[in-house]
């Protein structure tokens, strides 16, 4: 305690410079802890959402009520409705969020669904009956949940099941699937937590050289080695502890705001994002513990050899053992890439689920600890070959003090390395969450659409083409006469829906031959089929001999139809009411969501069949993208903050050297070039290594994931552009850090 009190008295007695250093350490720790709290809160938000949705799940059993569930898309959002009817007298189970089950003709809906029903009268058909109340947060997944309990009578439920109660062990539909959640946690750890450790270490090492000289002076005047280490650790721990408390308060304020704004696809209640007890313990104890460890390492040299520190003795070269971590890491991810290149498929094994994450961690750690010896070796080589004064000065400085280069560059290097992993996760999830077709189809029953609604849906932004598909007319459901299936489209429309179409003739009925399907035995040339029209008449179509050969995408509404009917055979404004209106768009998730939202605005009560995809999967992909975007933003903030703090601290620490060089006649341009080269060299080396190793790690992840994409060639230019932008920004930011101001105070000890 005496050593701690001595350290704080020396801190406050060292003037504005010491207090400013303490303030910077505190604010830096606060920013880092706030980012840490945000990352730790993500699993809590997802767990709270899934716990509430699991508690409201209808459970089969013996009871007095029957129920039937409907889960349909409303735009790009899932709409969940539970219809309930009393089958016999007796007590009724009650789900969380409501006080009692609705009576027939009554509905209890979520607040968001109540807003939709009030703003859009056409959506009233989604929830028949009078809205008699809203569901409280205890019965909802999040603030944007579309959920309804609808009271009805037993005869109106065609596929009802007996209701035993509410509540399940786990939610049937999680926000993020458990397997994907594990990958998401690992990725967030790589892109946020690893740079965060570096950043907090940088904050704990602010003014490291000045503090080392001060500690060496204390050691020389008789302070013991243990007390010297305690003095240094006390200052760092006090700053980290104050910063941790400030960071927690800051995060709580941001959480209250973001919970009301939300992220694309993810919303939550403020209580969900508040740190749990263990998260608070990690934040409040983790940062001070890290500061204590960094302080012990940083002050050991001053405590053991104070004369060397005071007289700026020769420093030991950085240890090279950290580079050895790259060997197994790159060996594993490179091995998987080599197996894929020679034609072997290493996916599906349980070993890869352990080897690939371990190799990624070893590679990332190797980048951190291997950057200093690599920089020192390269700087020594360049200094020996250089004929430029600026380059020689910069390289000699980088050679004798590569540790400062490590603090400057590591955060940004890990950010680029993590960006590669993020790209791989997005590519893999995108493959799993949707079909591989380049186009996306949407089917809507024509009997539920008016002519105005059809016109608006066809004109929805993102829709490329439209057609109609319908079975032939049958006198009754039990009619066993010949039947077939047809599409109504022009040749141009057909070409948009299918991969290829050969032999199409406009304004003529054609037989469709699909390369991927056997010929329809019912569609024999000369046979006649009738199709019901919306004006009450029937369209007679005779199967022709002429045909069009197509190769439909999989899956597709155009896989299997036997006849192509030109729209010119139908009277104006007449449709096939037994069929569907089918529209097509591009298959990227943003376009799919846009088209679904447009259809939902036009025809909110119509059921939409997004062919080949599940709305829950599309919603999950949106959540994953949002969380990874948050992780990248946090990683960027941490990396940039670490860079700014390190460069500014380095410039302050080297004012004496800059003053000495200025007195010897060095020009301002020379000093600026030296500063820029000292920053650009380790950063360039680290970014280059991060691009190569990150892309290999991404490729090994994609290869072992079993998807169709093994090499993300499209993402590689993005990484190069990002790395080049980081390098240019770092070079420009380093220029103002050198001031050619001669102050004898800075070199009085020399």
Q: Which sequence of strands runs across the widest sheet?
A: 10-14-11-15-9-8-16-7-17
Using DSSP, what is the number of strands? 17
- N- and C-termini, Cα separation: 35 Å
Biggest sheet descriptor: 9 strands, mixed
Structural class: alpha+beta
**What is the percent of helical residues?**
40-55%
Low-confidence stretches: none
Radius of gyration: 34 Å
Mean pLDDT: 77
Key descriptive features of the protein:
alpha+beta; 750 residues; elongated; 14% strand; 20 helices
Provide the fold topology:
Blueprint: H1 2-13, H2 16-55, E1 58-74, E2 77-86, E3 106-109, H3 111-119, E4 130-134, E5 146-151, E6 161-166, H4 178-204, H5 208-220, H6 225-261, H7 270-273, H8 277-304, H9 306-310, H10 326-341, H11 352-385, H12 389-400, H13 402-433, E7 439-445, H14 451-458, E8 463-471, E9 485-488, H15 491-497, E10 498-502, E11 510-514, E12 528-532, E13 538-542, E14 547-552, E15 563-565, E16 580-586, H16 589-602, E17 608-610, H17 615-653, H18 655-663, H19 668-705, H20 715-734
Parallel strand pairs: 2-5, 3-4, 9-15, 11-14
Antiparallel strand pairs: 1-2, 1-6, 3-5, 7-16, 7-17, 8-9, 8-16, 10-14, 11-15, 12-13
Helix pairs in contact: 1-6, 2-4, 2-6, 2-8, 2-17, 4-8, 4-13, 4-17, 5-6, 5-8, 6-8, 10-11, 10-19, 11-12, 11-13, 11-19, 12-19, 13-17, 13-19, 13-20, 19-20
């Amino acid at each position: 305690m005496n050593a701690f009190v001595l350290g704080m008295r020396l801190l406050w007695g060292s003037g504005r410079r010491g207090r400013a250093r303490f303030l910077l350490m505190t604010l830096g720790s606060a920013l880092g802890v706030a980012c840490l709290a945000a990352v730790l809160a993500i699993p809590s938000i997802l767990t709270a959402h899934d716990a509430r949705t699991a508690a409201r799940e209808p459970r089969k059993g013996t009871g007095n009520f029957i129920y039937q569930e409907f889960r349909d898309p409303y735009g790009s959002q899932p709409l969940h409705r539970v219809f309930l009817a009393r089958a016999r007298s007796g007590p009724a189970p009650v789900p969380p969020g409501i006080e009692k089950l609705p009576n027939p003709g009554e509905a209890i809906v979520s607040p968001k669904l109540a807003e939709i029903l009030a703003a859009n009268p056409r959506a009233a058909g989604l929830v028949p009956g009078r809205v008699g109340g809203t569901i409280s947060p205890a019965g909802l997944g999040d603030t944007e949940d579309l959920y309804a309990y609808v009271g009805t009578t037993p005869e109106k439920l065609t596929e009802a099941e007996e209701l035993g109660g509410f509540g399940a062990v786990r939610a049937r539909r999680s926000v993020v699937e458990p397997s994907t959640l594990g990958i998401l946690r690992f990725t967030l750890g790589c892109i946020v937590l690893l740079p965060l450790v570096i950043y907090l270490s940088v904050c704990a090492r602010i003014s490291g050289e000045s503090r080392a000289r001060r500690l060496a002076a204390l050691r020389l005047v008789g302070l013991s080695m243990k007390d010297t280490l305690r003095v240094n650790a006390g200052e760092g721990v006090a700053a980290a502890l104050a910063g941790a408390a400030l960071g927690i308060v800051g995060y709580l304020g941001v959480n209250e705001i973001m919970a009301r704004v939300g992220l694309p696809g993810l919303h939550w209640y403020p209580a969900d994002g508040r740190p749990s007890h263990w998260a608070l313990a990690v934040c409040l104890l983790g940062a001070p513990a890290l500061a204590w460890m960094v302080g012990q390492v940083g002050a050991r040299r001053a405590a053991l050899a104070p004369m060397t520190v005071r007289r700026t003795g020769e420093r030991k070269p950085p240890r090279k053992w950290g580079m050895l971590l790259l060997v197994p890491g790159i060996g594993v991810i490179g091995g998987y890439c080599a197996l894929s290149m020679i034609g072997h498929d290493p996916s599906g094994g349980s070993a890869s689920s352990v080897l690939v994450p371990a190799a990624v961690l070893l590679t990332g750690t190797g980048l951190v600890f291997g950057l200093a010896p690599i920089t020192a070796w390269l700087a020594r080589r360049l200094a020996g070959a250089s004929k430029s004064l600026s380059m020689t000065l910069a390289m000699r400085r980088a050679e004798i003090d590569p540790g400062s280069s490590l603090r400057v560059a590591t955060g940004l290097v890990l950010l680029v390395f993590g960006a590669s992993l993020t790209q791989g996760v997005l590519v893999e999830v995108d493959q799993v969450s949707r079909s591989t077709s380049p186009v996306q189809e949407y089917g809507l029953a024509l009997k539920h659409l008016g002519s105005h609604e059809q016109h608006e849906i066809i004109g929805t932004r993102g829709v490329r083409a439209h057609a109609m598909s319908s079975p032939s007319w049958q006198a009754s459901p039990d009619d066993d006469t010949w039947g077939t299936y047809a599409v109504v489209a022009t040749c141009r429309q057909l070409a948009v829906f299918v991969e290829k179409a050969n032999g199409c003739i406009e304004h003529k009925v054609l037989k469709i031959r699909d390369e991927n399907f056997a010929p329809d035995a019912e569609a024999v040339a000369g046979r006649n089929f009738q199709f019901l029209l919306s004006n009450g008449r029937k369209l007679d179509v005779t199967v022709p001999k002429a045909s069009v050969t197509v190769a439909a995408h999989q899956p597709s509404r155009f896989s299997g139809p036997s006849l192509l009917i030109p729209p010119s055979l139908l009277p104006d404004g007449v449709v096939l009411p037994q069929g569907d209106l089918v529209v097509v768009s591009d298959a990227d998730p943003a376009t799919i969501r846009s088209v679904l939202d447009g259809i939902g605005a036009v025809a909110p009560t119509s059921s939409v069949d997004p062919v080949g995809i599940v709305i829950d999967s599309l919603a999950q992909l949106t959540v994953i993208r949002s969380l990874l975007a948050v992780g990248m933003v946090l990683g960027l903030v941490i990396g940039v903050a670490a860079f700014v703090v390190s460069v500014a601290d380095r410039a302050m620490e080297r004012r004496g050297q800059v003053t000495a060089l200025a007195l010897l006649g060095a020009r301002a341009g020379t000093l600026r070039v030296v500063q820029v080269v000292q920053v650009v060299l380790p950063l360039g080396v680290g970014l280059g290594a991060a691009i190569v190793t990150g892309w290999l790690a991404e490729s090994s992840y994609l290869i072992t994931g079993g998807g169709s994409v093994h090499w993300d060639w499209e993402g590689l230019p993005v990484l190069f552009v990002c790395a080049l932008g980081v390098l240019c920004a770092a070079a420009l930011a380093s220029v103002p850090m050198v001031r050619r101001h001669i102050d004898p105070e800075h070199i009085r000890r020399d």
